[in-house]
Design goal:
Elements: H1 7-17, H2 20-37, E1 44-48, E2 65-70, H3 73-83, E3 88-91, E4 104-110, H4 119-129, E5 130-139, H5 144-155, H6 168-179, E6 184-189, H7 198-204, H8 207-210, E7 217-222, H9 247-252
Parallel strand pairs: 1-2, 1-4, 2-3, 4-5
Antiparallel strand pairs: 5-7, 6-7
Length: about 260
Amino acid sequence: MSYEFDFKAAQAYDAFFEKGGARHRLDLEIKLISSLISPIPGKRLLDIGCGTGLSLEPFVDLGMNLTGVDPSAYMLDKAAERLGHRVDLHRGTAEDLPFDDNSFDTALLFFSLEFSNRPAKAIEEACRVAREQVVIGVHNRYAPQNMARRLKGFFFPDMYSHAHFFSVWELKIMMNSILGKVPVKWRTTVQFPFLSGSLISKLESLRFIQWSYWGSFIGMRIKPVPKFRTRPLVLKTRNHKINEPAAGLALGFRIKE
């Protein structure tokens, strides 16, 4: 069962991201996630743990078919206020999604896997309903900023007190145990969490910067089914003479003299 945000937590969630520094970090995180998803008009995207709709909002005007699911009725109310009828919203948990197999092209877990008591089951469900890819965005447990958050949570409980932070290695091990050797691509962002501005945004966009293991936010893309290259088989045939008698018939009969 996932952690469910109550009314007070739902109100605090949006208020937290309205701050200047938090908004700058959120923009960097959504930019990384968007680059991993590669939005295409008409594609079906499911946001698992959509919360108040902050992670879906950037995709609304891109022509995608958007669906959100969240266990908290309070979060869904906020999402409906923000997104209106442009997104199909459902109540449900990441561990037991109310959708058929392959219902979507992409499944997104953005700041939601941390709040699942069974993250492996949540990933299994995401892979079940996603036809093409699963994209995950989580807090990096080894980033200095997140270490400070975890320490602070011991003394001043907040929403992060209920979160389990992940590392790149931990996610990879989990993927291999669930899916085997599947294609995985990852990057990180928010390398400089206490700085902002256009120059910092440009630095954060550099690929060699995003290959760091210490960024505050990890973005990972998984292909649920491995892709194999195939080659046509060569069929070998034997040509038989039309008038050549079958071997069995030739040996089975003898002409009387």
